[in-house]
Amino acid sequence: MYSGLVPRRWPPLSPRFPLWIPRRPQRKPRSRWALPRHAKPSLSSTIAPENLTRFPSPTAPSAPWDGDAGILRYRGYPIEDLAEKSTYLETAYLLLNSELPTAAQLKEWTYNVTHHTFIHESIKKFLDGFHYDAHPMGMMISTIAALSTFYHDAKEIFNAESRKKQTYRLVGKMPTIAAFSYRHSLGMPFVYPDNELSYPGNFLNMLFRTTEYRYRPNPTLEHALDVLFILHADHEQNCSTNTIRGVGSSHVDPYSATAAAIAALYGPLHGGANEEVLRMLMEIGSVQKVPEFIKKVKAGETKLMGFGHRVYKHYDPRARIIKRVAYEVFDLMGKNPLLEIALECERIALEDDYFVKRKLYPNVDFYTGLIYQSMGFPMTMFPVLFAIPRTSGWIAQWEELLLDPEQKIARPRQIYLGHDTRQYVPIDQRS
Ligand code: ACO
User: Fold this and answer.
1) Most buried residue, 45, 218, 229, 302, by most Cβ within 10 Å?
2) What is the dihedral of CA 28, 33, 39, 42, to 10 degrees?
């Protein structure tokens, strides 16, 4: 990572290894306000060179990103094209290998992921140890971390074959562990993976199969889930991606690093926001109460969850696609009664000066919760549905970091604002 550095020339010679030179060393600042010009809190001036996700500017394509334009591409492919024409597994391959697969490569990749969906029987016992009402994200964090104790070869992070194997395992086992966590909360028996089904279809099978001899996922729901998975696969240097890069830079195994990323995603300001949006809509309760709620938001008493983004200062392109998917699901499952409240929140916010001035638009989480609820998922599963597809993006980012010879262990510089040296005071002399 390049903290507080500025480009020597613009555009950089190569997108992968831009040339950066450090600014002249600054004198030690005395307060937060004396930070070097390029150093900002929340790592927002820290730059990670990466090749995966890009928010390009249509007017200045060589600029590194442009959230204002509301454009998102994976490895150069527009997200809209991938959502319409690709599948999640194909998109995951693209993120992990830089190129779309040939038919033979896709077949091999799908086979390998599918044949790593089973989990060790001891992991089932591990999951059984959780309390019945444990949050599935807590279960995911712990169980993915526990995988590192099963696969010792995962420590060989500079062995390409080992990295490949851990990737199959992680992408393959995430849906299984997620589904088992859900079944545990219901007290229902675990459903083993069905290798004949697609990646999202098998996930639905492990979640919802009861007494059927063979579970057949509804094609509309299977497709909707696949599109949602594509849209959630990667998103530049967000909090959880920055976490996997930071933790991974210590050269820990990928299971431990992924567990850390899931923990970052769990927070309500990040992947946990989709759960919070639903809670917020339920709390608002009716369309008539939306103006009153918006008043509270503007007074700083609460947030309009699912709105705002660090990078996008325009409509999140993923939110636009998700809105379309929502209607496909509602046509099948019936309209979610909370939809009207969400639409009214969006209508008012898009016209209100408070939101317009701050460039606050719906983000990816604003409508996903409504879809997930209509598909039958409980709210606590919403962030899990984000974590499953993001795994491919996390691993691609982790691998890119590992293979970048310029990368070192992550360690931001510190501006110390505390006391100078003090003399120890014995406890009986303290006031
Ligand atoms: N509701 C009301 N006001 C908001 C919101 C919101 N959702 N988001 C930002 N603001 C306001 C802030 O209060 C601030 O106002 P001020 O200038 O008067 O102080 C201004 O907009 C700028 O906001 P910041 O907090 O500085 O923006 P930042 O880039 O740090 O935060 C974040 C981005 C965390 C996403 C924020 O918009 C937020 O909390 N949104 C709600 C949670 C959410 O939906 N998270 C999901 C994000 S997408 C994802 O992670 C997958």
Assistant:
1) 229
2) 130
- What is the pTM assigned to this prediction? 0.85
Which ligand 1 atom minimizes the distance to the CA of 366?
A: 44
Q: Which residues line ligand 1 (CB under 6 A)?
A: 238, 269-271, 273, 297, 303-310, 358, 360, 363-365
Q: How confident is the model at residue 234 (pLDDT cuts 50, 70, 90)?
A: very high
C-beta separation of 336 from 373 below 8 A = yes
For the chain, the first-to-last Cα distance in angstroms comes to 45
Annotated active-site residue 352? The verdict is: no
Looking at the CA of residue 303, tell me the nearest atom of ligand 1.
Answer: 1
- Mean pLDDT estimate for the chain: 87
Q: Going by CA atoms, what residue is nearest to atom 15 of ligand 1? A: 358
**Which residues, in sequence order, are CB contacts of 180 under 8 Å at separation 6+?**
119, 124, 127, 190, 206
Q: What's the pLDDT tens digit per position in 43-86?
A: 666 666 666 666 554 444 444 445 667 788 999 999 999 999 99
245-263 b/e with 16+ CB inside 10 Å = b?
Answer: bbbbbeebbbbbbbbbbbb
The length of the chain is 431
C-beta separation of 275 from 268 below 8 A: yes
Question: How far is residue 53's CA from residue 8's CA, in Å, rounded to a whole number?
Answer: 23
* Residue 365 annotated among the catalytic residues of the structure: yes
> Are 202 and 171 a contacting pair, CB within 8 Å?
no
